[in-house]
Amino acid sequence: KDLPPIDVVLITHAHFDHLHRPSLRAIARLSRRRYGTAPMIVVPHDVRDVVSDLGYREVCELNWWQSWEHANLTVTHTPSQHWGARMLHDIHRGYGGYVIAAGGYSIYHAGDTAYFKGFQEIGRRLEPQIALLPIGAYSPPAFRNVHTSPGDAVQAFRDLNAHWMIPMHYGTFRLSHEPIEEPPQLLASEAKAAGVEEKVLVLEEGKTRIFTLPGQRNIRYRKPDRWSIPNLIPHQNS
Hints:
By secondary structure, the chain is α/β, with parallel strands linked by helices. The protein has helices spanning about 20-35, 50, 120-125, 150-160, 180-195, and strands at about 10, 40-45, 60, 65-70, 75-80, 95-100, 105-110, 130-135, 165-170, 210, 220, 230-235.
């Protein structure tokens, strides 16, 4: 109920902690009530049936590297190393991240993923400037087959050659065996060791951060009058 007007919702995969049907239905219902129309929703391939009855104005399915355009936005679905099944039997469902580009600017949301060489290709092909990368759910070590540790996320950031990294996928609820407060602490040390600590930015709830490209003035904070966050909201526990 505190969200601003939403144009598009992006779904990275169908896992229950990333595609919560009651929450998505509430977003569509509230948007219709307040603004007279529901948002559009973008999903990976073979996820349409999970969201088609939730009241969205349009459902768009994408495969990896496919793009979808809306107004001045281009949304490109990107590969990841994860899996998309919602139940045991539906391993056909897609998964991945998104690069959102508009007006010469771009932001990458990785979704759930392990570290893989695909980050290099994403960086080369789409050149995201801001990278939202997951840093939680890495313990026990076997979890790193499908999730990134803070160190993995730093390496992914370097592979992408992005200007800024925003950590996500931690701190909302306990995802695995590491202490819930550990991921950002490890990220700080890993980023410092890699010499990128000034490029790793932890966002604070209720605050807006204005980004500038290299060569411009430094980043500054401002406290919004109300909510002032992007209208493109990937549905993540980040």
